[in-house]
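Key result, reporting period 2: structure in, sequence out.
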């Protein structure tokens, strides 16, 4: 859909990293913003910065794992702005560690935030987007880990692969309904952010991977550069957003190994 001044964007996980980059870019385009995060201080900081630049902002502490929190966010957004045009289901956390060593609580946290958080976002906002009967766009932040697999990243990978599938199904559903609501799935490689601070991995088998990820994320693509790529994809109504083309040969190799029924080979650390 064509992004225009005055449209309303809802962004979860807005207070840091990728979400913050999206918010700052959207503000420059003249969008009105609904910012959601569980980090009150980060939200306040971003909202202050954007309001000072003239942007209309609604900022609300929200835990995406809570459907009630997201419903309250939607109600507040509709009360203030009257509609929603863009929905960024972006909030997420990291977890390294061997599949069998992660605790039940660690698995549950990943599922609740990274996967159920997006399901909640869709359950709460899709009826509104569909009822509006006008173009809108949903962007789900998955990861390259939604397309590739790495050792010692099971919980994160499981949630991100599920998000890619969920997004693809949603796209098919919008097409089947003839709906003007578009869908994109964002699958970035390393982007500079604070995500490794959310990793509860310790000294176990995932520690080495954690160190590699930490470094590649520190040197990752700046979030403002990523935001430009994402907004261009929205304008083009493009489903797949793969901002790191250098990972495409690994994706091609994985697809070929599935078709050839040869065993998976881990080529490189991905996020
Ligand atoms: P970040 O840690 O800098 O930002 C994530 C934000 O989400 C934080 O402000 C955090 O407070 C918020 N958040 C976490 N749990 C939440 C919850 N339950 N409810 C509401 N807000 C919550 O990390 P980053 O990297 O910006 O992550 C954003 C998304 O991008 C995540 O889904 C992540 O998996 C994904 N991603 C990140 C990559 C990277 O290299 N940084 C690469 C691929 C995907």
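The corresponding designed sequence is given below.
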């Amino acid at each position: 859909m064509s992004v225009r001044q005055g449209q309303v964007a809802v962004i979860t996980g807005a207070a840091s990293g990728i979400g913050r980059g999206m918010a700052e870019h959207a503000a420059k385009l003249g969008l009105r913003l609904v910012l959601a995060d569980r980090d009150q201080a980060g939200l306040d900081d971003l909202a202050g910065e954007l309001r000072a630049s003239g942007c209309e902002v609604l900022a609300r502490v929200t835990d995406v794992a809570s459907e009630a929190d997201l419903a309250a966010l939607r109600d507040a957004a509709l009360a203030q702005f009257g509609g929603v045009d863009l929905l960024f289901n972006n909030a997420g956390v990291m977890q390294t560690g061997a599949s069998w060593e992660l605790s039940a609580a660690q698995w549950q946290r990943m599922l609740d935030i990274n996967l159920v958080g997006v399901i909640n976002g869709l359950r709460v906002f899709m009826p509104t987007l569909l009822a509006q009967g006008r173009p809108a766009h949903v962007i789900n932040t998955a990861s390259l880990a939604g397309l590739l697999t790495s050792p010692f990243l099971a919980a994160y990978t499981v949630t991100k692969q599920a998000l890619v599938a969920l997004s693809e199904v949603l796209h098919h559903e919008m097409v089947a309904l003839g709906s003007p609501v578009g869908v994109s799935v964002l699958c970035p490689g390393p982007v500079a952010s604070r995500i490794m601070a959310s990793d509860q991995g310790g000294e176990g088998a995932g520690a080495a991977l954690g160190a590699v990820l930490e470094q590649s994320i520190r040197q990752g693509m700046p979030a403002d550069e990523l935001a430009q790529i994402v907004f261009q994809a929205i304008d083009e109504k493009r489903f797949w957003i793969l901002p790191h083309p250098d990972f495409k040969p690994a994706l091609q190799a994985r697809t070929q190994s599935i078709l050839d029924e040869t065993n998976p080979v881990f080529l490189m650390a991905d996020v």
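Residues 2 and 235 are 5 Å apart (CA to CA). The beta strands are 8-12, 32-37, 57-61, 86-89, 136-141, 181-186, 240-241. This case is discussed further under Risks and Mitigation.
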